[in-house]
Design a protein that fits this description.
The protein is an alpha+beta fold. The chain has a 6-stranded antiparallel beta sheet with strand order 3-2-1-6-5-4, sandwiched between helices. Strands 8-7-11-10-9 form a 5-stranded antiparallel beta sheet. It has a 5-stranded antiparallel beta sheet with strand order 13-12-16-15-14, sandwiched between helices. α3 packs parallel to α17. It starts with about 25 loop residues before the first helix and ends with a strand.
């Protein structure tokens, strides 16, 4: 059962007892149109001022709790009343399947057979709100001309009343919901006559009457006996409040289904400790009559023995849905989305294979797939025009879901599929729509024929909405990822020059978070009379940092080429950065190399100290004097130090991304890098570079980019 609110409110505000003219105008208009078209429930929404929202002002025929998710909605919300206002037209939803296809969010919450019509309450100059009404699932799939005329005329008349009331400074207000008779305690008010009550009292099974909020207005003695609660306790209370073992979400679906669809429904419930009772619900527009009897042949629930082909009663549980939604928000790339759908969503809905499709330049593109024995059956669709006669292309281009219960059904609509079997027997083609535009399609394949129920279609379509949001973000991320790598590749040297007496190699790893565009750089300059090496790190991880990095690298190369000494190169670069007026700072390490003498001159601007490995395997941290970060003080000077670069020595220049690890002291991290350099320093330089970056925290999740430049003085000369 579902606990519905007994107090009628709108948007949490106290309700008014009357409309703008002292009478319940909204309630009267709503009940009149419900009577005119034979609807069993409905509501009127008002637009408060010019706010882009609609607020429920009055509801009839159903407990307001059923519409709680939609008591206040934005005009852009994907629901019929908002669409009716946006497009100023009547919106018709012909049944359960139509609702699941067009408004999956509503269908997931209310997966019952009912029809709905929503129309704007508007004059030629102003929209005051909207009105909707619902019919049982037995209503024809099309709205009749008589019903359409009655609805549109009623909305026009209500809009004129609201316009006149507003002109007299009597704006419309929320009203008490009609068809709410309040607590019932007398038998005659429910059954009509005392004799009828006596007749029901003699029945061997239980009978009770509930109003729209679930309160008991009548119960016979057999009902009290079966429920184990005295009739005097049941009267005037909600059934699930007086009978705690009925307060179970399992029974909520049946109660809501009966009221919304106006179809009889039934369920069985276990009365502790071991007695099963059968409940049959007979709804009307004023309440529900409940028949209670002992159930026959109901076994205790035990471990499921369902066969492989048995479908679960509920496609995914609420906890599963929340878990999947949370997991999708954590995906980053398109392949992350593919893996998550394959690992979690497909198994949850019983699918054995999936494909994610996208569109670019009028053609279909396979973004990823999983579970197909022959990948070629999916990959052959890559590059296919969107107007091709295939269900995947049709779903992407039109944004309409398609469900095929069998191969025969699929091949009847798409004969070309007969020649390209994929080994599966049922399919769901789900459009992935984000921000109102199609971003692709998700294809779920099943090994055996199956019937997709309306509830299952609604759940799959709703899950597709979650996948679409994740895929939209992932596609944007992948574009940024490609942009980052392209920009970084353009700013860093494509290759290192060959220098006499020096063997060199470098590595660059982008950050794995954010835009992946960093400010780390390195360079090796073949200049006369002596070559130079530089490594640096501009603060930040964005396009600005990358652009500044490119300027610094170009400046260092220019100052080196014209023959400036290391201290002057650093001072000139610092002045340039200071004069650019950037808010970013940069660290830098500059080396003038003299392999013939076995020496190098170093100038340092706030950069992590390089490591020097001698031929005997000992490693020294060159934590020598330098100057402040570039860009802080335009008049700063930078001391230089001559260091050993005799044959067999290895210099390791790096940025802080290689050594920084959360919770690890920076000196300990430098020492650990030195131990790895000592152990592997005799390896070929390429292998040594891979070893140093591969055994650091940078090999996994990186919050900073990494640059490494290794220089080894060659033997001889």
């Amino acid at each position: 059962m579902v606990a519905v609110s007994e107090g009628q409110t709108s948007g949490g505000r106290p309700v008014a007892a009357a409309g703008p003219a002292g009478r319940p105008v909204l309630s009267l208009a709503l009940t009149a149109v419900m009577d005119a078209v034979g609807a069993h429930s409905g509501a009127v929404y008002l637009r408060p001022g010019d706010e882009p929202v609609l607020e429920m002002a009055v509801m009839a025929g159903l407990p307001r709790a059923f519409a709680a998710p939609w008591e206040r909605v934005g005009l852009s919300a994907p629901i019929p009343v908002a669409e009716a206002v946006r497009e100023r037209r009547l919106v018709w939803v012909g049944g359960e399947e139509d609702m699941a296809r067009r408004y999956p969010r509503i269908a997931v919450v209310l997966p019952y057979p009912f029809a709905l019509a929503a129309a704007p309450v508007a004059t030629g100059t102003r929209v005051y709100g909207a009105l909707y009404v619902t019919w049982p699932g037995s209503h024809p799939p099309e709205l009749s001309d008589r019903e359409r005329d009655a609805l549109e005329s009623a909305c026009e008349r209500l809009a004129l009343r609201l316009e006149r009331a507003a002109a007299h400074n009597r704006p419309a207000r929320a009203e008490t919901d009609p068809l709410d008779a309040g607590p019932l305690s007398g038998v005659s008010g429910t059954l009509g006559t005392v004799e009828a009550a006596r007749m029901v009292g003699r029945l061997p099974y239980g009978m009770c009457s509930l109003d729209l909020t679930g309160r008991v207005g009548f119960a016979n003695a057999a009902a009290g006996e079966l429920l184990g609660v005295p009739v005097s306790v049941l009267l005037g209370t909600q059934l699930w409040a007086s009978v705690p073992w009925l307060n179970d979400p399992t029974y909520e679906e049946h109660y809501r289904a009966a009221l919304i669809s106006q179809d009889a429904t039934s369920f069985v419930a276990l009365r502790p400790p071991s007695e099963w009772l059968s409940f049959r619900l007979y709804p009307s527009t004023t309440g529900i009559s409940v028949r209670i009897s002992r159930a026959r042949g109901v076994a205790e629930p035990g471990p499921s023995r369902a066969g492989q082909g048995d479908a679960p009663t509920r496609l995914v549980s609420m906890s599963q849905a929340l878990s999947l939604a949370g997991a999708l928000t954590e995906t980053v790339s398109v392949q992350d989305v593919v893996r998550l759908v394959a690992d979690e969503i497909a198994p949850a809905v019983g699918s054995s294979a999936l494909a994610l499709l996208g569109a670019r330049a009028g053609r279909l593109h396979v973004l990823g797939h999983h579970g197909y024995p022959d990948p070629h059956v999916v990959e052959r669709f890559d590059g296919m025009p969107l107007n091709a006669p295939t269900p995947g292309a049709h779903t992407v281009s039109h944004g309409v879901p398609a469900f095929f219960d069998s191969r025969q059904q699929l091949e009847r609509l798409y004969p070309a599929r007969h020649a390209t079997p994929d080994g599966f027997a049922a399919w769901a083609f789900l459009p992935l729509i984000a921000s109102g535009r199609p971003v692709g399609a998700c294809v779920l394949a099943y090994p055996r024929p199956r019937t997709f129920s309306t509830h299952e279609r609604a759940v799959l379509t709703s899950l597709a909405g979650l996948i679409a949001q994740a895929l939209d973000r992932a596609l944007l991320y992948d574009v940024k990822h490609q942009l980052a790598h392209g920009l970084q590749a353009a700013l860093l040297p494509h290759s290192l020059p060959v220098l006499p007496g020096i063997e060199a190699t470098a590595r660059y790893l982008p950050a794995t978070r954010g835009m992946e565009i960093g400010g780390d750089f390195y360079d090796l300059v073949s200049a006369r009379p002596l070559p130079a090496a530089v490594i640096g790190d501009v603060q930040g991880h964005n396009v600005t940092a990358a652009g500044l990095m490119g300027q610094i690298r170009t400046a260092v190369r220019a100052y080196t080429t014209v023959g400036q000494e290391p201290a002057e190169v650093m001072r000139s670069t610092n002045r340039l950065l200071f004069e650019l007026g950037s808010d970013l700072f940069a660290s830098c390490l500059y080396l003038r190399l003299d392999p013939a003498r076995g020496r190098a001159v170093m100038a340092r601007a706030g950069h992590p100290p390089p490591l020097l490995r001698r031929p005997d395997g000992r490693v020294r941290v060159l934590d020598l004097a330098g100057g402040p970060l570039l860009g802080i003080d335009g008049g700063a000077t930078y001391a230089t130090t001559e260091v050993d670069l005799s044959p067999g020595c290895v210099l390791a220049l790096y940025t802080d991304g290689l050594i920084e690890t959360p919770g690890v002291d920076i000196e300990d991290a430098v020492a650990a890098l030195g131990r790895r350099l000592a152990a592997a320093g005799d390896s070929p330089l390429e292998e040594l570079a891979d070893e140093l970056v591969g055994h650091s925290s940078a090999a996994g999740e990186r919050i900073d980019d990494v640059a490494l430049l290794l220089l080894r003085a060659a033997d001889g000369d």
